[in-house]
Amino acid sequence: MVFGRYANLRRIERLDPATDYDQIFSLVTQYEFPWEYVQGTSIAFMRDYGVPSISALLDRTGQFEHHGQKRYDDTILIGYEATVETLESQRGREAIRHLNRIHGKYDIPNDEFLFVLATTVVGPKRFIDAYGWRPLHPHEVESMYRVTTRFGELMGIKGLPTDYEGYERLLDDYEAQQFEFAPSNRRVAEASMRIVEAWYPSAVRPLVRRVSIAMLDEPLRVALGLPRQPRWLSTALDRALRLRAHVLRVVVPPRPASRPYVHDPRRTYPFGYSLYDLGPDWLRTTPQRPRPTRSA
């Protein structure tokens, strides 16, 4: 066992998730499971596309098709801005107001907001359960639920679940009712996968695409209209991710306190960004208060 590998877990066990949820959430997402959290969130984004009414709106905006990398970075960075100094901080509140202004342009029903919010907590939790280097502690699960719920409250979403299990039921029930193939599902999903493919040399992009599809569960793959991948690929991917978790547990030292995980925005913002750089171009047609630039 790597010395100190469980130090953060011991710390989390001493914290109260009812009051210290922001601190626990930061430990989960920036130190204990940063890669897993990002992967789970990325798959959660794909789940949104399995609902035709959601994919149709995303398809109409053209953001993924024409500004895919920026849309990807902006989504992650707004979440980061909202939570890095807690949701109750000035920085957090400004990020939520900015997000609400973006959404306010569109007529999005409350049930879709609820579903999308549920994907952002259930998706990462399930991915960490499957491929994290250790199981999530109940305090960590509760912190994820509480941060998600407070995020939803500040967005004005109604009917929020009262525990993590409520989010899981909401997601599963909604998908059972609403998942259905539509051409817009596939267009937005393909545009999203092209973002990831572009990070790699052209020679391996076909494999990256196949791996991306193999990461999806069968109901989601069918709803997106993506081709079935061979069983050997799914099996190899599963084994590779479990091997990675084992290596992290017994070989790799924990992330030091001085080096929290931060999303690298340089593909879109090589010289840094401000909050009001995040979002579609129409946001910048109205004068807004300046914000300090965040370094890339």
Describe, in plain words, how this protein is organized in 3D:
By secondary structure, the protein is mostly helical. It has one domain (about 15-255, about 275-285). Helix content is about 65%, strand content about 0%. The chain contains 13 helices and no strands. It has helices at about 5-15, 20-30, 35-50, 50-60, 65-85, 90-105, 110-130, 140-155, 165-180, 185-195, 205-215, 220-225, 230-250. Helix 4 crosses helix 10. The longest helix has 22 residues, at about 110-130. It starts with 6 loop residues before the first helix and ends in a 46-residue tail after the last helix. The mean pLDDT is about 95.
Poorly predicted runs: none
Largest sheet: none
Q: Give the N-terminus to C-terminus distance in angstroms.
A: 34 Å
- List the secondary-structure elements in sequence, H or E: HHHHHHHHHHHHH
Strand content: under 5%
Q: What percent of the residues sit in helical stretches (DSSP H or I)?
A: 55-70%
Q: What is the alpha-carbon Rg in Å?
A: 19 Å
Silhouette: globular
How many individual domains? 1
Q: Structural class of the secondary structure composition?
A: mainly alpha
- Number of E-type strands: 0
Separate helix tally: 13
| Chain-averaged pLDDT | 93
